[in-house]
Amino acid sequence: MLLESISSPTDLRRLDQDQLTTLAAEIREFVVRAVSVTGGHLGSNLGAVELTLALHRVFSSPRDILLWDTGHQAYVHKIVTGRRELFSTLRQAGGLSGYPSRAESVHDWVENSHASTILSYAHGLAAAVARSQAPDRRVVAVIGDGSMTGGMAFEGLNNLGHSGSRVVVVLNDNGRSYAPTVSRLSGSLTRLRLHPGLSQVRRSVEDALRDIPRVGGLAYSSLQGLYSAVREVVEPRAFFEALGVRYVGPIDGHDIAGLETMLSQAAEFDGPIVVHVLTQKGRGFGPAEADDEKCLHDAPVFDPTTDPTEASRALKGYTQAFNEAMLDVGERNPSVVAVTAAMPGPTGLLPFAKRFPDRFFDVGIAEQHAVTSAAGMAMGGLRPVVAIYSTFFCRAFDQANLDVGLHGLPVVFALDRAGITGDNGPSHHGVLDLALTLRIPGMTVFAPSSAQELKVMLDTALELSGPAAIRYPSGRARQVAPHEVGSGLAARKVRTGDGSVCLLAVGKLLEAAEEAAEILAAEGIAATVWDVRVVRPLDPRMVTDAGRHRLVVTVEDGLRVGGAGTQIADAIADLEESRVCPPVLVLGIPTSYIPHGTVEGILSQLGLDGPGIAASTQKALPDPAPIS
């Protein structure tokens, strides 16, 4: 196999075009097999094979700086930069990251897997290169059309044009972000290129002109000139060049020779230039090509001889519970609307969008806009529910704080993938949302411990007069009986102890706290256990009861500092009873970047499973003494 002979980008430059075609096919087969074993981003990498090969043949990485926005499509880059043999460890604990990683290779520059950032990195790196001792180094930024829906991309583009930075921007246009791209930037071009009526007329006119005796060739050439003139009007050229950025394209992103020619010419341009490349997400793998929703953007572990599409689309756990709850409230309350940022499928909103299409808003990869738009909806009398991942909520904190919170608006934030998320690593762990939402005055914060709790909490949140956040994890959702579900803003007492220790559990960690209580019981320690349910406002009954114990332990899968535990400790310290308050042990996520691994493995390492909570509790218990 040719692939086995590729250990660095230099090896690519000795191949001819036929060999490159063979290599591209081998890489696609390799990626499918690798992802089938570990899970990971599939469709985006299958679509970027030829583009990656062309980039590494034209530019000399790592001397030339290749940058990947989000990094979803960087598997091929990793393969040709010497990491092929590590793919059996992809997204496994201690193994290969699913995104570019500075710790892995000198060929990787940016490991932030949040979208729309790369043009800003490119602007800064170009400024540094221009002032270095090797100003001829090239900076190349690959960004998808989906990422171009994010406002930060336009800020970076504007500054590239203003500064005249020598950057090659490769616009990888596959009509997709995660779902189909929400943007008009290249929409008119795509419609003109693909419209069957226009294509048929074009072919008929071309055939007729070619058949005209003696002048057919000239007439045909003139028609091509007309096409070029029309492209000047309808293509993105006018948009980019108005910002001071040269534009070329669009070109076939699966034609390696054509890509190399265009990229080589772009490399000589003394300023910012956009090379518009058309690719097919999921190319070469039938199920991905046929997946209209997301082209198998991400895939679970699967059998490569079967179609993994349904398993990839299947909603699980809390996301499925949210989906069902939204359909229910949507039927009962016509003022409820749903807002998401290019993630209608993963957040569980596709069924809502199908049932209530005029009440569903996908704004593209634009979390800041999503939140402020929701604020406007709330001002106008609607009840918006903004469904985004916990990690992406960080991008819209200012808007949640000042555009929603300051105005006291009834916007509900459904924060999916909260807590430790596992194999996508530090950029995707949802560990900041509790610390952030608790800083917004007037924000009610819910944390369901079961699928049934999430449904009850959404109803409660939509009855409030101000903002609310419901944070819930990925993966399995606990299923409980009706008597194990709370109501309103009250906490729920799960277990009554002997006054020695009180465990206050937030969200999914209730299950671990109950396991810890069983372990402690075997050691003769009868622990009280509460399901906090509502982190703010805290239930005063729970706070008062906790204050009667010799030790209080709070447990959460958010940041330990500034999170729920801090909130509870402050509330216990403020109790007005004339006695000494018990110590409060706050267990949570440390202030550090947590690498990828399994959720269970990471929580165990952090002492946030049942045995870990029990061990920390035993260690912290004070010597027995009566509480006055």
Q: How would you sum up this structure in a few lines?
A:
By secondary structure, the chain is α/β, with parallel strands linked by helices. The protein is built from 26 helices and 19 strands. The chain folds into 4 domains: 3-186 and 236-299, Thiamin diphosphate (ThDP)-binding fold, Pyr/PP domains (Rossmann fold, 3-Layer(aba) Sandwich); 187-235, no CATH class; 317-471, 3-Layer(aba) Sandwich (Rossmann fold); 492-620, Rossmann fold (3-Layer(aba) Sandwich), CATH 3.40.50.920.
Please tell me about this protein's structure.
The protein has 628 residues and is α/β, with parallel strands linked by helices. 41% of the residues lie in helices and 15% in strands. The protein has 26 helices and 19 strands. It has a seven-stranded mixed beta sheet with strand order 9-8-10-11-13-12-17, with helices on both faces. Strands 2-3-4-6-5 form a five-stranded parallel beta sheet, with helices on both faces. Strands 14-16-15-18-19 form a five-stranded mixed beta sheet, with helices on both faces. Helix 4 packs across helix 12 and helix 9 runs antiparallel to helix 10 (216-234). Residues 188-199 and 228-234 have low confidence and may be disordered.
- Report the structural category: alpha/beta
The structural domain count equals: 4
N-end to C-end Cα span: 78 Å
Globally, the shape reads globular
Residue runs with pLDDT of under 50 for 5 or more positions: 188-199, 228-234
Mean pLDDT: 87
Number of E-state strands: 19
- Portion in strands: 5-15%
Q: Strand order across the biggest sheet?
A: 9-8-10-11-13-12-17
Q: How is the main sheet built?
A: 7 strands, mixed
Cα radius of gyration in angstroms: 28 Å
| CATH H level, superfamily name of the largest domain | Thiamin diphosphate (ThDP)-binding fold, Pyr/PP domains
CATH topology of the largest domain: Rossmann fold
CATH architectural name of the largest domain = 3-Layer(aba) Sandwich
What is the count of helical runs?
Answer: 26
> What percent of the residues sit in helical stretches (DSSP H or I)?
40-55%
Pfam family, one: DXP_synthase_N
Cofactor: Mg(2+); thiamine diphosphate
Binding site for thiamine diphosphate: 72, 113-115, 146-147, 174, 285, 367
Enzyme class: transferase
